[in-house]
Amino acid sequence: MATTNATAGVTQAKTFKELACSPSFAGGLQQQSICFSAVNIFFSITAFLGNSLILVALHKESSLHPPSKLLYRCLAITDLLVGLVSQPLYATYWMSLVYENWSLCRYAIDTVCVTGYTLCGVSLFTMAAISLDRLLALLLGLRYRQIVTLKRTYIIEAIFWIICSVGASCYLLDYRITFSCGCFIISSCLLISIIAHSKIFLTLSHRQAQVHDQQQPSQSNALNMARYRKAVYSALWVQLAFVICYVPHSVLVITLHFRKSYPSHSIKGIVTVFAFFNSTLNPFLYCWTISEVRQAVKQTIRQASCFSWI
After folding, report:
1. CA atoms within 13 A on the CB side of 208
2. Where does the chain have alpha helices with state H?
3. Higher-confidence residue: 270 or 30?
4. Per-residue pLDDT reduced to its tens digit, 128-165
5. What is the pLDDT of residue 221?
């Protein structure tokens, strides 16, 4: 009985891959496949250019705390790799359906899933780390810079990449392993972020009440708290955008796993494009919510414009 169940599970996993690259799934929808391919290429270019600009701006910006800047750099790198690797591969998948190149189709969909799960997982871990970073900055005070160092942040990010790469690579063996890892990472990271932000806002409210009790609050302390609030809200906006963009795709994957039914051609393409759109959206959020990054981006664009006229 156990052997029968295991065989059925492997057959089911193979069926999902075969359905994604089969004439019955792609038949009569060549025009939609071409459209999805073109949209992915367009957002691939915007994600690559936007996040390249953010990385240049972060390199020039010196007022941000180095570990905090490294975390935002890692987010920008994962978004850049989505535009440079995942989206072109996904466009290749759609075009392979048009030309009925099934071997290329299977290679493209496997590679998209592995790279997509890896980059998504690293982004989730990093956003949870940003939430904890903001909480530690509030709770530790002067000890924050001694405890949260650049070296420790590099080590933590390396661990994130290793965990997510191993978990995503298991997709090639059995998609259920990657699905289980993904559920654990998503739930853990979201829980950490919710707890961290809840603790931040409770602590801020408590300290705000203490400030009101003082007759002459320190002006420098008020300025630091205002800057801290901006940093918290900027991280929160980035996390909310990620959740909104990836919720439809997560619902689709969960439905696929439990109901054992493959989604329609159009739904699959739309929710995946919407998820990848997050990599194009994030650079705009950085510029909107982080004034230091916005000024550095403006300076970079001016310098690029001057060089173009030389």
Report:
1. 9
2. 2-20, 23-26, 30-60, 66-81, 87-98, 102-140, 144-147, 150-169, 175-213, 219-259, 265-289, 291-309
3. 270
4. 999 999 999 888 888 888 899 999 999 999 999 999 99
5. 56
Give the whole-angstrom CA distance, residue 200 versus residue 194: 10
Number of residues that this document lists for the chain: 310
Query: For 204, how many CA atoms within 13 A lie in the half-sphere containing its CB?
Result: 21
Q: Residues 57, 60, 65, CA angle at the centre, nearest 5°?
A: 95
Nearest to 129 by CA among 160, 162, 164: 160
Which letter, b or e, does each residue of 228-241 get, where b requires 16 or more Cβ atoms within 10 Å of its Cβ?
A: eeebbebbbbbbeb
Poorest-pLDDT segment among 135-149, 208-222, 290-304: 208-222
Angle 265-289/87-98 helices, nearest 10 degrees? 160
DSSP state of 214: S
Residue whose pair of structure tokens reads 């069926």 in the numeric block? 15
Q: Take residue 150 and report the two structure tokens written for it.
A: 């650049």
Distance CA 47, CA 76 (A): 9
Cα 154 to Cα 156: distance, rounded to the nearest angstrom: 5
Question: Cα–Cα distance between 102 and 81 in angstroms, integer?
Answer: 25
Q: Tell me how far apart the alpha carbons of residues 96 and 74 are, in angstroms, rounded to a whole number.
A: 32
Alpha carbons 196 and 188: distance in angstroms, whole number: 12
Q: What pLDDT digit, counting tens, does each position of 154-196 carry?
A: 999 999 999 999 999 998 888 888 888 888 888 899 899 999 9
Q: b vs e for 243-268, b when ≥16 Cβ sit within 10 Å of the residue's Cβ?
A: bebbeebbebbeebbeeeebeebeeb
